[in-house]
Amino acid sequence: MAGMERAIDAEHLRRVYPKGGLFRRRGDTVAVDDISFHVPRGTVFGLLGPNGAGKTTTIKMLSTLLIPTAGWARVAGFDVVRQDRAVRRHLGVVLGGDRGLYGKLSARANLQYFGNLYGMTTDSIRRRTGEMLELVGLTERADDRVERFSRGMKQRLHLTKALLHDPPILILDEPTIGLDPAAAIDLRRAIAALVPRHSVLLTTHDMHEADQLCREIAIVDRGRVVAQGTPAELKSRVSGARRVVIETHETLNGRALEVERAIGALEPVRSVSIRPEDRGANLTILCDDTARTLDDTLSLLRRYPATIRTVTVIEPTLEDVFLSVAGRSFE
Ligand SMILES: Nc1ncnc2c1ncn2[C@@H]1O[C@H](COP(=O)(O)OP(=O)(O)OP(=O)(O)O)[C@@H](O)[C@H]1O
Ligand SMILES: [Mg+2]
C-alpha cells in the first residue's frame, strides 16, 4: 500500500440480516444502514457506538467475513469482495471472545504454531515473536502456559497473534471489553504503540477510550454514522456544554444583577445565572472558552466583595456529543 493515503475506505456500507426463511422479507434486521468513513494511514480510528449500533457487523464486512448487502469498501486499496484474499493478507483481526489460543501451550509456542500456519519462516517467526511480545509487554511470561494468563494478558496475546505476519492494518473489535482498568490501560498503551507503523481501526463503546486513543472517531448509531471527526472537533461542535461554575462565600446581595450583567458582557460568555445558596452564591456561566472566561470572571469579581469558595470547569465530553447528535444518552 505504498503511497496510499488511506488504510480503509468504507462507502455506503449496508448489511441486512434476513429473518428466518428465504421469502420472509418482513422483520429483517438492518444491522448497518448506511455507513461511510475513511481511516487515514498510520492512525488509530474508532467506531464508537452503543450496543447494537452495527459496529461488529461493519468490521466483519471489512474483514471479509460478511458480504455487504450494498455499498463497498477497500482495505489497503483492495476491494473487500472482489479482492478478499489480498485484503486478508494486509489485515490482522482481533474479534471478541477468548477462542483461538491453545491454553496448554506457552505464549511463544502459540505464536510459533500460528506463524507456521501462516507459512512464515522459522527465522521470521522467532524474530517477530520476540518483537511483538516485547511490544505488548509479555516477554517475561512468554514461556508460561496461556491457560494461566489473565484476561488482559490473553487479549494482548491475541493482538500479538494478529500482528505476527506484520500486516499494515489492524482491526480490533472492543479490544478492552471486560478488562479491569489496569489491564485496559496496558492494552491501550500497546495499541497506541502500533501507530504510525500500522493503521488501526477499533470499535468501542467506551467514550473515554475513544477520546484517549483515537485520532478520529465515527460515532455510529442505529447503523448510521451520526458524527465524525477528531475528539476535539466533535466536542467543539456541542454548544451549551462548556461551563464555568464559581461558588462564592458571599451572597452578592443587592449586586447580583450588576455582576450578572458584567459577566454576561464578557466576550466568550453566552449566558450567566447567579443563584443564592445556603452560605453564598453560585455563578453558572455558559461559554465558548473556559480558560478565558475563568480568567476574565475572576478578575472582574475582585471588584466585588466576593471571596471564591470553589471553581469548577466543565468541558464537553463525547457523551455530550452523542446526546446532541442522537437525542438520547449513550446507555
Ligand atoms: N447474525 C445475526 N443475525 C441477525 N441479526 C444480527 C446478527 N448479528 C447482529 N445482528 C443484529 O444487528 C444489529 C447490529 O449488531 P452488531 O453486532 O453489529 O452491533 P454492535 O454495534 O457491534 O453492538 P455491541 O456493542 O453490542 O457489540 C443488532 O440489532 C443485532 O441484534
Ligand atoms: Mg459488537
Textual characterization of the structure:
The protein is an alpha/beta fold. Among the domains are: 1-90 and 197-236 and 317-331, Rossmann fold (3-Layer(aba) Sandwich), CATH 3.40.50.300; 243-315, Alpha-Beta Plaits. Helix content is 32%, strand content 28%. The chain contains 11 helices and 14 strands. The protein has helices spanning 55-62, 84-89, 107-117, 122-135, 151-163, 181-192, 207-213, 231-236, 256-264, 290-301, 318-326; strands spanning 6-17, 29-40, 44-48, 70-75, 78-79, 91-94, 169-173, 199-204, 216-221, 224-229, 243-248, 269-277, 280-287, 308-314. Helix 3 (107-117) crosses helix 4 (122-135) and helix 5 packs parallel to helix 6 (181-192). The longest helix is centred in the middle third of the chain and has 14 residues, at 122-135. It is elongated. The protein binds adenosine-5'-triphosphate (ATP) and magnesium ion. Magnesium ion (MG) binds at residues 55-56, 173. Adenosine-5'-triphosphate (ATP) is lined by residues 17, 29, 31, 49, 51-57, 205.
